[in-house]
Amino acid sequence: MSVATHTPLRYAQIPERFNVATHFLDRNLEEGRAGSVALICDPPDTEPTRTTYGELAERTNRIGNGLLALGVRAEERVLLALADGPDFVASWFATLKAGAVVAEAYTFLQAKDYLYYVNYMRAGVVIVDASTLPKLREIRPQCPSLRTVVVAGRAAELHDGEVFLDEIAGAASDQLDPAPTSRDDIALWKFTTGSTGAPKAAVHCHHDPLISFDHYAQGVLGLQADDTVLPVPKLFFGYARDLTALFNFGVGGSGLIFPDRSTPARMFELIERHRPTILVQVPTMMRAMLEEPDAHTRDLSSLRLTVSSGEALPRELHERWLDTFGTQVLEGIGSSELYHIYVSNRPGQVRTGSTGMVVPGYAAQLLDIDGQEVTLGEPGELWIEGESAALLYWNDHEKSKQTFAGDRVRTGDLFMQDADGYLVYRGRADDLLKAGGIWVAPLEIETCVREHPDVSDCAVVGVEVDGLVSPTAFIVTSGTDTDLDASAVIAFVRERLAPHKAPRDVTFVKELPKTASGKVDKQALRSRHETEVA
Q1: Looking at the structure, do residues 269 and 215 belong to the same domain, yes or no?
Q2: Contact criterion met (CB below 8 Å) for 518 and 310
Q3: Which domain holds residue 191?
Q4: 173-210 pLDDT tens trace
Q5: 139: in domain
Q6: In a domain, 4, yes or no
Q7: How far is 148 from 150, CA to CA, in rounded Å?
Q8: Are 198 and 378 in contact (CB under 8 A)?
Q9: Are residues 195 and 239 in the same domain?
Q10: DSSP result, 484-534
Q11: 532 pLDDT more than 80
């Protein structure tokens, strides 16, 4: 099928008085969907629960009033560090409806990571659960801004400065007028993954989610009221949260959430039990699901779309998914800086091996190192222009100047565009390696190595040896009976790419380390190599 013609929403069409929670949650009650299911939550070893829009709105109002009673002020930052569930979603909307600013952190971080987030945000309130409460207690003496820790559930006795979420919500009114926010008020922070250093927050206004919803969720996905969205990544990752508990609310759809870790077996179980229509994927999990021994017997026929982002989707992996499950995959790329996805394949117009075309409502340029547009078929750094662009990186003036120019954003990603307008990912601009005096994109080498029948996965990083940077390949083999060695890999690449692009060194590993958002942790690979050489 093809996507109907869509006229993108413009910033000027959004009312000056605007609140994300009112538009995406409360509007469902106004349009008669109070009894419709907003969230299905399926915890392990417990019966699933269903939360209607009416119930979610009431919980949101009670939590919002509870936060106001704790002294939360307009524009104050509130950090969520709790597992996926209805209270995560209600707390997220409650913070916005109360006029404060919301951000989220992964629940499997170390205490030092929460120390960074709380102090970077100067958060006055953090909402936690049993898994994150001990870590917040550990770092709290070092957090001068932190007034109150709000605890979801009743897994522990309270300490000074802590309150139960159920108690502040239970004592509060179920009616809450939205804060008089404008479309230009700051609403939320989206953190980068921190692949080039400590995580930075891209600061977004209330209008940004609506622009992104209109351009991508409606203009590309065509979300419908009967869609149920299941995410592989957890809700702290904006890519997953927006599709599961925001964009689909914009059309009265539902989200399927679960608090435990995502595993191939769990994903198959949830799909077969609840029959979602959209699966929010990352390539790492796609590969893991395909490698399950019974993958070919699993029933994914309920899915009308699988969405893939977070890292490049290799062509061979995409084709294996299609051959095994038969569900359409829309690869795309987005960023914290532009709120969500801005390049994507379209339903019925998928080109495997490509990231797709520019999403309607955005404009793109591919520029060389001198800022000039590249010729067709040549790689260049992608600049995107769109009205969902963040204002800045919080507390990082220099990096903000390098990245943001009004609605134009320097993505840092290298792409090549073909004659039909499809963009092919060529890696990160800051990942470029100079091998033999010539610039090389690691992704090109990785893609080539993955074509070897004995290779399951590959990552290439630049490692400094005797003052020179050379490409080093870390390889996961596809089985234990392979006799693949480093010389065979290097020869394989030399036969297919220019000789200078072949890796100088090859290391075989059982698995590639991943960041919290599921991307390959290349810094960890560099550190490992440096340690082994030393």
Answers
A1: yes
A2: yes
A3: 11-416
A4: 999 999 999 999 999 999 986 444 588 999 999 999 99
A5: yes
A6: no
A7: 6
A8: no
A9: yes
A10: --HHHHHHHHHHHS-GGGS-SEEEE-SS--B-TTS-B-HHHHHHHHHHHH-
A11: no
Structure tokens at 265: 């077996």
Token pair belonging to 94: 């409650």
Together in a domain, 255 and 356:
yes
128-137 residues labelled b (16+ CB within 10 A) or e (exposed): bbeebbebbb
Domain boundary, last residue among 364, 390, 416? 416
pTM of the model: 0.85
Q: Is residue 271 part of a domain?
A: yes
Domain count, the chain: 2
HEC profile for 237-297?
CHHHHHHHHCCHHHHCCEEEECCCCCCHHHHHHHHHHHCCCEEEECHHHHHHHHCCCCHHH
Contact 148, 70 (CB under 8 A): yes
Domain shared by 324 and 178, yes or no: yes
Closest by CA to 22, choosing from 73, 69, 61, is: 61
Which residues are within 8 A (CB) of 46 and not within 5 positions of it... i.e. 6 or more apart?
A: none
**Is residue 96 situated within a structural domain?**
yes
Same-domain status, 412 and 436: no
Looking at the structure, do residues 107 and 253 belong to the same domain, yes or no?
A: yes
Q: Which two tokens stand for residue 28?
A: 């469902």
> 480: exposed, middle or buried (C-beta count within 10 Å: 0-12, 13-18, 19+)?
exposed
Arithmetic mean of pLDDT over the chain: 93
Written as six digits, the tokens of 245 are 């508990």
Provide the token pair at 266: 């769990």
List, in sequence order, every residue forming a beta bridge with 409; answer none if it has no partner.
Answer: 384, 404
Instruction: Return d(Cα 269, Cα 261) in angstroms, integer.
Output: 13
